[in-house]
Structure formats: structure tokens, C-alpha cells
């Protein structure tokens, strides 16, 4: 990791601990107590920021994970387990993380409202169980023992700030790594994630585990704050309110998790001072949450957008997509690298593909063309493993290409999509590294981006138009150095005049990246300028296949394209 990447977060963390120290000695006792409550809430919100804010899954049981942490800490306290409070806190986090993985299992199949029902149901079941079970030590009145050096409220608050800062740092670095990119990718498109060779299952389960572990740590800290944990601190309605607050504030951003926690504590406190029942705080959070859901945004991203708009005005993204390079001499074609035999796919009564044979030779670009509905995208979906019902044989380098899309991507078969599957919340650099799945130097990335006329690596993808995003998608997959790359209408988002420049670059791809390409495209000019061989599909069958000139002169092909009297 570069020193600047490590240094700045560490400086901010040290400053935050400094502020915590000043507050711990300077605030009145009551405000120190409130501050500690905000620290506890901030850690729980950080967790929600992972599962909901980053990975896009609904989790309505965050305080249940808190209860698991609190329960483990209380139990270890009554057992007088070795290690003391800090070790118990960690164990509480780990236990909650494991419960998080179990809760995350249904998330592999469920989405949206169904997942909401499952997680809220779990929270409600935990409500009842906790009332029956009670926390260890409560009936005997054994309060949780804080560490000796943090026994009074002021020093315990400072300990809480240090734990919060450590959690923020850990999360910051996790987000910058593969897990973090996986969370954002899976939130935007599960298919896009799998096509990048990343496991959708791992992305979802790690999000739940990290989120729950943070919830567990917050519950453990709360137990140390109050001495004896009670079920009333972890109810399902509070989990629901915390979720709404998370949605409203945008807690996938660390600063907004802290801000949300301040609201969580300050709103009920203000209501109390004004003589209004504190439960009205939930109504206020509910109202603000509905507002956020209706507008599709949140406070954190609105503030970031405001800042970025100013930054963007200062630094406009210039895309130079002119042609580059000198006269190109194609390498000789090699042996078949991808062989498809008798591939068939049925959707109900529709034969989307009927016994299709295709061969892609090394160092070549094969064009697959055909009228709308001919079966081109179905062909790519079937080869890349997205249609398990497909019949027939697919071989890569002479070996059967089988299994999930993730597995196929990992053994050297990459694909892009007709629709935009590039998560806009990553930067170009983070996305390319995520998709490439191997160590890349900044120079390697910069050169590949420049070759395709893409925006610079540090650019947020949300600033980039959809055409350029799809070029970045191509670059990411090429940098994975797969054996083959299937491109499903890659130029669709580009202005027509840029198709030629794109075609020239694509022609050089086999020699430059060592990748053979199967190109689906409607733009025949582009196909003509790039493809050595062409296969024409019509009604799911191969109409013609062979060298470009031969295929485009074929009368059956001309007929299929009706109106196109001359394709050459
Ligand atoms: N999920 C699906 N369910 C039912 N029918 C489908 C499904 N996907 C594709 N089809 C049908 O299969 C046939 C082939 O579709 P496909 O999308 O592969 O064609 P295409 O050549 O890629 O078309 P286009 O050029 O418009 O993208 C069409 O008749 C389409 O309606």
C-alpha cells in the first residue's frame, strides 16, 4: 500500500482520538454518557453501512447482533473468563459475525421485501427469546467489569472512541480491498459480479459477517457502559428505526455513520428536554427515512455530490478517443481456443439456440451477427454459464468449460454485457482492479485505459458516461488476461463516429493483450473493420460461418438482413 494511502487515514484516526480525549475531559458528566451512547450507535451504524449502504441488502436486525455481543460479554463476565473486557468484546464481535453469516445465508436467495421480512422476523424472535432468557448476570446483579484503566465514565468514553476509531480504520481498508469492491459490485449487479470472477455468495456473506461483527462490538460496549444489559436496549422496533436512520444519513460513508449516531442520541434527548415523549423520535426518523427512500438519495451522497460538482467543474474529464498507433499487422491465426458444439437453449416454446456450432481461433476476432432475436445474447449467456439449462458442449483450450459463471470467469472466459453492469460507486481504478483479479501496477492500468481512450484511473465512475463506462468494463476484463473475451455490443453506448476508433483498437486486442475475442455487434461497419471470421445467427441457428468476405456475400445472409442489399 502506498504511504499516502496509509498515512492520511492514520493521521485522521489519531486526530479523532485526540478529539475524543478532549471531549472526555472537557464535557459535563451527563454529556460524556450521551457521547458514549453515540459511540455505541456509530459502531452499529457502521455495520449497517456495510450490509445496506454498500452491499445493498436490507437488514432489519442490527440490534439483534448487538444483543449477541452483549450476551457473550455478559456471559464471559459472569464466568470471570480470562483476557478481560477487551478480549470479551472481541469474542462478542466474532460470535455476532458468525450469527451474521447464518442470517446472511437466506440473503443468497432472497432480495428486497423478502429479505426484510426474514431479518425483521429474526429480530422479533430475538425480542421474545431475550425476555425469556435474560442476559447472564442480570438476575444475580453481576455488572460487567470494565478494564481497570477505563473504569470511570470519562475514561470508558475514551476507550469507546478508540474502539470506534479502530473499527472505522478497519472498515476503511476493507472497503479499499476486494471485499469492499465486491460489496458495491454485488449491490449494482450480481451478474456483473459473477462475470468478473468474483463470488456473489462471498460478497454477500462477508457483508453480513462484517456488519454483524460491528453490531456485536457495539452491543458489548453498551454492556460495559450500563453494567447490566437488558432486552429493552435491543428491540426489533429500535433495529427498524436504526435502519431508517442509516438509509437517511447514508451510513456507507464513515463520517455519516458518526453523524447518524449523533442524531440517534440528540433527537430523543432534545424531545425529552422539550417535554415531548421520546418515542416521537422514531416517528421523526421514519418521516426522514420515507423522504430519503422517495427521493432515492441520502444526506451523505447529497453532500458528496455537491462537493464533487465543484471538483468536476475544476477538473473536467477529457476523453481522447481518436485513433492511435501506426499501421497494424495482424498476427497469424492460431488453433481454436473456444469450441462450441451443438449448443441449444429453449425458453418455453422458443428455440433461442438450436444446435449451434462455433469456433474461435487464437489471435482472432470472431464476429457474431444476426437480426434482433437471433439468439446472440443467449449464445454469450450460455457460454458464460448464466443459462444452466443450456445443452451441448463448450470447450476452452480443449477442456470442457462448465460450472458457474464465476468459475468460468476464473479459468479464462470473460464477458461483458449489453446493459450497463459497471458499479458507479467505484472509481475507474478500483473497478479495473476488482475485475482484473490480479496485481496490477498503476502504469499498466493507465496504459490500458489510454489505449481505449478511457478516463483516468482516479475518476469516479459516476462521472463517466455510459459509453465510456462500457469501455472501462472492456479494459478491466482484458487486464484479467483471460483466454477469451465475449463482447456483447460493446460500442452500443458510444456515438457512431467513435465506432471506427473503437474498432481499430479492438483489432489490436489479440496481439496486445493475448486475448481472442468474440464480438456481437449490430454495426456492420464495425464488424467489417475488426472481424477475421463471422458467424451469422438467424432464429437460433447458424445461417453462415467463415471468412468475412465469403459470409457477407452469402445470399441467405443478405436475405436475413432484408433491405440490406449489399453487405460488402
Ligand atoms: N429469458 C428469456 N425468456 C424467454 N425468452 C427469451 C429470454 N431471453 C431471450 N428470449 C428469446 O430468445 C430469443 C433470442 O433472444 P436473444 O436476446 O438471444 O437475441 P439477440 O440476437 O441477442 O437479440 P438482440 O440483437 O435484440 O439483442 C428471442 O426470441 C427472445 O425473445
UniProtKB/TrEMBL annotation:
GO cellular component: a single term: plasma membrane
Keyword Secreted tagged: no
Topology relative to the membrane: Multi-pass membrane protein
InterPro entries: AAA+_ATPase, ABC_AA/LPS_Transport, ABC_transp_permease, ABC_transporter-like_ATP-bd, BCA_ABC_TP_C, LivM-like, P-loop_NTPase
Transmembrane segments: 7-24, 30-48, 55-73, 85-108, 115-135, 155-174, 240-267, 282-303
Signal peptide: none
Name assigned to this protein: Branched-chain amino acid transport system permease protein
Keyword NAD: no
GO function terms (MF aspect): ATP binding; ATP hydrolysis activity; branched-chain amino acid transmembrane transporter activity
Organism name: Actinocrispum wychmicini
Pfam families per UniProt: ABC_tran, BCA_ABC_TP_C, BPD_transp_2
Domain ABC transporter: 338-564
Keywords tagged on the record: ATP-binding, Cell membrane, Membrane, Nucleotide-binding, Transmembrane, Transmembrane helix, Transport
Subcellular location(s) of the protein: Cell membrane
Amino acid at each position: 500500500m502506498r504511504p499516502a494511502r496509509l498515512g492520511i487515514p492514520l493521521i485522521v484516526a489519531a486526530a479523532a482520538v485526540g478529539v475524543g480525549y478532549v471531549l472526555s475531559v472537557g464535557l459535563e458528566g451527563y454529556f460524556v454518557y450521551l457521547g458514549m451512547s453515540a459511540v455505541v450507535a456509530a459502531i452499529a451504524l457502521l455495520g449497517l453501512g456495510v450490509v445496506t449502504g454498500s452491499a445493498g441488502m436490507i437488514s432489519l436486525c442490527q440490534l439483534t447482533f448487538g444483543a449477541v455481543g452483549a450476551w457473550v460479554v455478559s456471559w464471559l463476565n459472569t464466568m470471570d473468563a480470562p483476557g478481560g473486557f477487551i478480549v470479551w468484546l472481541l469474542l462478542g464481535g466474532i460470535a455476532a459475525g458468525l450469527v451474521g453469516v447464518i442470517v446472511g445465508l437466506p440473503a443468497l436467495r432472497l432480495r428486497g421485501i423478502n429479505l426484510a421480512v426474514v431479518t425483521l422476523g429474526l429480530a422479533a424472535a430475538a425480542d421474545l427469546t431475550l425476555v425469556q432468557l435474560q442476559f447472564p448476570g442480570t438476575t444475580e446483579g453481576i455488572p460487567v467489569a470494565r478494564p481497570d484503566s477505563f473504569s470511570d465514565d470519562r475514561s470508558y468514553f475514551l476507550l469507546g472512541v478508540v474502539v470506534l476509531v479502530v473499527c472505522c480504520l478497519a472498515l476503511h481498508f476493507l472497503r479499499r480491498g476486494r471485499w469492499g469492491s465486491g460489496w458495491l459490485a454485488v449491490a449494482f449487479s450480481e451478474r456483473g459480479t459473477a462475470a468478473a470472477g468474483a463470488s456473489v455468495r462471498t460478497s454477500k456473506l462477508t457483508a453480513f459477517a462484517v456488519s454483524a461483527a460491528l453490531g456485536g462490538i457495539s452491543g458489548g460496549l453498551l454492556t460495559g457502559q450500563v453494567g447490566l444489559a437488558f432486552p429493552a436496549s435491543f428491540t426489533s422496533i429500535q433495529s427498524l428505526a436504526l435502519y431508517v436512520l442509516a438509509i437517511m444519513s447514508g451510513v456507507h460513508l464513515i463520517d455519516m455513520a458518526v453523524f447518524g449516531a449523533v442524531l440517534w442520541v440528540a433527537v430523543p434527548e432534545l424531545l425529552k428536554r422539550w417535554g415531548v415523549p421520546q418515542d416521537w423520535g422514531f416517528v421523526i426518523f421514519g418521516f426522514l427515512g420515507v423522504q430519503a427512500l422517495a427521493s432515492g438519495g441520502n444526506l451523505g451522497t447529497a453532500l458528496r455530490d455537491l462537493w464533487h460538482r465543484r471538483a468536476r467543474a475544476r477538473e473536467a474529464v477529457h476523453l481522447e478517443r481518436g485513433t492511435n498507433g501506426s499501421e497494424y499487422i495482424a498476427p497469424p491465426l492460431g488453433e481454436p481456443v473456444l469450441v462450441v458444439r451443438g449448443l441449444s437453449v429453449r425458453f418455453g416454446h422458443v428455440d433461442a439456440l438450436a444446435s449451434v456450432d462455433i469456433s474461435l481461433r487464437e489471435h482472432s476476432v470472431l464476429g457474431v451477427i444476426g437480426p434482433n432475436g437471433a439468439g446472440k445474447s443467449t449464445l454469450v449467456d450460455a457460454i458464460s454459464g448464466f443459462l444452466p439449462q443450456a445443452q451441448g458442449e463448450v470447450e476452452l483450450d480443449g477442456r470442457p468449460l462448465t460450472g458457474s459463471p464465476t468459475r468460468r470467469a476464473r479459468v479464462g472466459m470473460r464477458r461483458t454485457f449489453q446493459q450497463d453492469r459497471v458499479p458507479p460507486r467505484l472509481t475507474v481504478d478500483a473497478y479495473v482492479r476488482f475485475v482484473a483479479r490480479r496485481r496490477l501496477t498503476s502504469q499498466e492500468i493507465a496504459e490500458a485505459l489510454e489505449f481505449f481512450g478511457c478516463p483516468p484511473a482516479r475518476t469516479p465512475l459516476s462521472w463517466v458516461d455510459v459509453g465510456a463506462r462500457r469501455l472501462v468494463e472492456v479494459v478491466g476484463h482484458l487486464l484479467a488476461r483471460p483466454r477469451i473475451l465475449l463482447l456483447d455490443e460493446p460500442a452500443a453506448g458510444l456515438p457512431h463516429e467513435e465506432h471506427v476508433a473503437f474498432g481499430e483498437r479492438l483489432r489490436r486486442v489479440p496481439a496486445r493483450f493475448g486475448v481472442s475475442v468474440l464480438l456481437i455487434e449490430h454495426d456492420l461497419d464495425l464488424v467489417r473493420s475488426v472481424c477475421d471470421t463471422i458467424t451469422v445467427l438467424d432464429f437460433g441457428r447458424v445461417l453462415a460461418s467463415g471468412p468475412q468476405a465469403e459470409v457477407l456475400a452469402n445470399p441467405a445472409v443478405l436475405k436475413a438482413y432484408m433491405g440490406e442489399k449489399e453487405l460488402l
